[in-house]
Amino acid sequence: MRETKQTNLEEDYQYCEKIIKHHSKSFYYAFSKLPKPKAQAIYAVYTFCRLADDTVDTIEVKEEKINQLNHLEEELKRFEKGEPIEKPMWRALRDVFERYQMNIQPFFDQLQGQRMDIDFVAPETLEDLENYSAFVAGSVGLMLLPIIASKTKKDLQHQANSLGVAMQITNILRDVGEDLRDINRIYIPQELLKKENYSIESLRNNEINENFIRIWETLAVRAENLYDQFSDSIHHFDAESRLPVLVSANVYRGILDAVRKKEYDCFSKRQFVTPVEMQKLTLQSKKILKEKNILVNEE
């Protein structure tokens, strides 16, 4: 019986692994290098986040989005109470919660972030943007924290949130055109557009001029500062987590340089980090950890 249970759990984790492998090659590339138990735990958390995100982004009717999100929240409440939910993701997450000192609140925060997208209001200030990003992405960093920093006594919540916010700002800078074209959303703070005298009409016309580049770089530099805040604390994370987590941060950060190399064209095509660049960033991450004398378990 126990062997059957373990076989079923393995299948549940395989289901979650397929989700992350399909939807995020950069995350999968980095986190698949973790020891298997930690990698599987991250796949399960990612699957929850993907389900929450798809509930908002792939359903067109607002009422249906709300209904599906409410259903997911009800399942999360049942999960919190310890009730069994016979679905691969929830069974995998139950195992994760049993193996790590997980906190349920970031999961609820993630759903709150998705509700902010349903009733989307364009951010007025950078502070507004970062507050939104903390819910939709900082929450992910906080979900993963007990897995990738399971042995530390240091409070790393600020760093985990910083990484999530940095990644969300990176997403926004990569997807400016796509977000406007496909879902009619502008995540760039309104006061920044006004400051640089760059209109919504210019945005809709895909104008890449000096004004737009200054706006884009203002947000990119902020994201890079947040990446630095995270990276400066990498030595506090579990030894076997350091390289994969730093690689994930640096690969995502590499998206900013990918957009720069294409002369800030974030309108016509989604820019990405190539497999060759991923390998280079992995080597750079190893070098950074070696210089800090904290690289272990690099295989």
Question: How would you characterize the overall build of this protein?
Answer:
With 299 residues, the chain is mainly α. It folds into two domains: 1-119, Farnesyl Diphosphate Synthase; 121-299, Farnesyl Diphosphate Synthase (Orthogonal Bundle). The chain is 73% helix and 0% strand. The mean pLDDT is 94.
The SSE string, one letter per element, is HHHHHHHHHHHHHH
**What is the fold-level CATH name, i.e. the topology of the largest domain?**
Farnesyl Diphosphate Synthase
**Rg, alpha carbons:** 19 Å
Question: Residue-averaged pLDDT, rounded?
Answer: 94
The helicity comes to over 70%
**Quick one: biggest sheet?**
none
Helix and strand content put the structural class at mainly alpha
CATH architecture of the largest domain: Orthogonal Bundle
Number of structural domains: 2
Q: Report the end-to-end length measured between terminal Cα atoms.
A: 35 Å
- How many strands? 0
CATH class identity of the largest domain: Mainly Alpha
CATH superfamily of the largest domain: Farnesyl Diphosphate Synthase
As a percent range, the share of strand residues is under 5%
Low-confidence stretches: none
Note the overall shape: globular
Number of helices: 14
